[in-house]
Amino acid sequence: MSARYVSSQFIKNIQKGTKRISVESVDQTTAWKRPTGYPSANTKEVFSNVVDKNSDSFRPETVKVAMKESQHQSDIDNRTHYTAYELDKDDKVIGTKHIVDEK
Predict the structure, then answer these.
(1) What are phi and psi of 83, to 5 degrees?
(2) Which three-class secondary structure state does DSSP give residue 88?
(3) Number of C-beta neighbours around residue 53 at 10 A
(4) Strands 64-72, 81-87: parallel, antiparallel or unpaired by DSSP?
(5) Phi, psi for residue 16 in degrees, rounded to 5
(6) Is 69 in a helix, a strand, or coil?
């Protein structure tokens, strides 16, 4: 069974028209807890920009995007991407998404 979302730390809010998305970083799942100081200020800023650029790709009910994994590649997806949870207004995970920085 894969790790489930427990909590995240706020990074910033992004406003696109009438939609507001809270950008966060997962600090705990059912399998692990992040050390203090993660992620770096630079990683937070870059991730926030990537969420902003991809804001139209999230589900309409998404109010929070929480970074689970920083930029990486995987066997399933060889693009350099972030893995993030999409959460609704009740803090329930409604999806897991690979987010790519389309430069």
Answers:
(1) -105, 125
(2) coil
(3) 15
(4) antiparallel
(5) -125, 100
(6) strand
Give me the average pLDDT of each 10-residue run along the chain (103 residues).
89 93 96 91 95 94 95 85 96 95 74
Query: Can you point out the beta strands (E) in the chain?
Result: 5-16, 19-29, 64-72, 81-87, 93-100
Amino acid letter for position 9:
Q
This prediction's pTM: 0.91
Please tell me the predicted confidence (pLDDT) of residue 31.
94
The pair of three-digit structure tokens given for residue 53, joined into one six-digit string:
């650029």
Contact 46, 67 (CB under 8 A): no
Residue 86 CB burial class (10 angstroms; 0-12, 13-18, ≥19): buried
**Could you tell me where the DSSP H helices lie in the chain?**
41-53
In eight-state DSSP terms, residue 31 is: S
